[in-house]
Amino acid sequence: MDALRPRDPARIGAYELLARLGAGGMGEVFLGRSPGGRLVAVKVIRDEISEHPEALARFRREVATVETVRSAYTAQLIEASLGTSPYWLATEYVAGPTLRGAVGEHGPFPPDSALRLLAALAEGLAAVHVHGVTHRDLKPQNVILSPQGPQLIDFGIARGLGQTALTKDGTAPGTPGYAAPEVLLRNETGPAADVFALGATLAYTATGRPPFGTGEEAAVSFRTVYEDIDVAGVRPDLAALIRACVDKDPARRPDPAAVIAGCAVDSPLAADPHYRRVAHATEPVPGSVPAVEDAPPETVLLPEAGPTAPPDRDDRQRSPGRGPWGRFWLAVCAVAVAVPLTVWLLPEGDQRQAAGAGGGGSGAPASAGPSASGRPAGATPAGRPPDHIVNDRDSKDRWVLSEDPVEASQGGGSCERDLPDAFPPSGLMSSVSHTTGSDTASLLVHTKGAGKGKRPAPYYVSIGVRPPHETDPATGRPLKSVGKGIGFTSRPVDLYAHWNSGGSVRLSYPEDFRAHFGDRAVEAIPVGDDRGDWTVVIYHVEGAPTKYTSVSCNGFHA
Questions:
Q1: DSSP secondary structure, 427-451, as one string
Q2: Which structural domains are found in the chain, ordered by start?
């Protein structure tokens, strides 16, 4: 969990807010305390989307679903406010890491532990299905590992068993890599689709790898529909159960009861040594609201299980890559799926709570004037980066959506730029992900040779995300003029900080970004506030907030 930020409310309803648990495209989740001392998880819908009928309908559906489903495998609804803004719901607080966070922190589960977890999750799905509800977005970040057993969270797109398709054309529920083929191709959901997601979730649990690989949304979805799941190295009995759950034909998949029988567990999950170790690896709950100035510094470097660990949130959190990155960026062959996908991600950022690593903000702006050491404002000792870079110039980099209809339908585009300011280091691979219709984006910067040979000298990078239109320095809102500056930027970090563990720089937009105009910092706007072509640039940062050069460019269309 993270400390509250200055803009966060101190109280929602009767609940004092203690910390941040996560954030996503629709809202934020806080740890709250009732007047009598009970801990709750408070989910608050964002003000800027509270007037959208579809967003409110989804939120109200989540409240109704959580209220309907009474199970030992789901957090119980305590209270909700649906009448006026701010809209929120409070559920019981379940202490424990997410499954994604636990695997990222401790590695894949041993086979017997994975079987016990599979049986428990299947029992949880059965308990949900008996209430006439399908979850529709089961994935590792939507499973909390409490000491008593796993808990299913985020019922924001859950539906009754009779509702097999979304009413909005051109969208499909679920997350690429976990959504079943019939969901991706025909928007058909049901208990069998939940079983498919269960199998994919256990594949990740047993391997620590994305079940159908990484890359752009269309590429991952194509593999989900037509290729085998990745269970390389998994013990044969567990691999067979996973393959049965992810059969391409929903009619051939086992129901949750059959999955439980196939696991043949003979001892409780809560007594499993590995499960007990990862489920108890939680942060202490703060006793009161921490002072903002005492909040721990945030970081944008999140450890991962290895070079093949999945990109994030929010996170998480799970999103389609957009556009070619040129020869210095990770290239993925994207194949169109029958329908475009909309993936709801709430909450994202839960892996930070689980792993105990900050999601990363861009940091506070440096104070004006020279420092006591005589260095320029914002500068740091030799060899170290500043805590931000300043939006003090026009950028030559501009990403535009492809004019080719097929490529454009997959989010493909290209960067228009003059000669680059500098060339990226060898082996730099990056990707940007944005879900159509969402307010967020995910960014990953990785070094191909991480962990091999001697760690290179520090190379500090900051990611710049520029909206289609210029940002008003006074209000942070988009203007009518075309964007020319460097936009919202992340805190500079060493590209090689986690060299030996194969780590990556992972960022979530808008959470990890700010625009810095001199000594003034402006919060990043949600993607939905400025529709059009967004440009994403990697900057090499040296010594001072104004000393940076662009090394590569990409973008996405919103």
A1: TEEEEEEE-TT-S-EEEEEEETTTT
A2: 11-92 (3.30.200.20), 99-279 (1.10.510.10), 302-557 (no CATH)
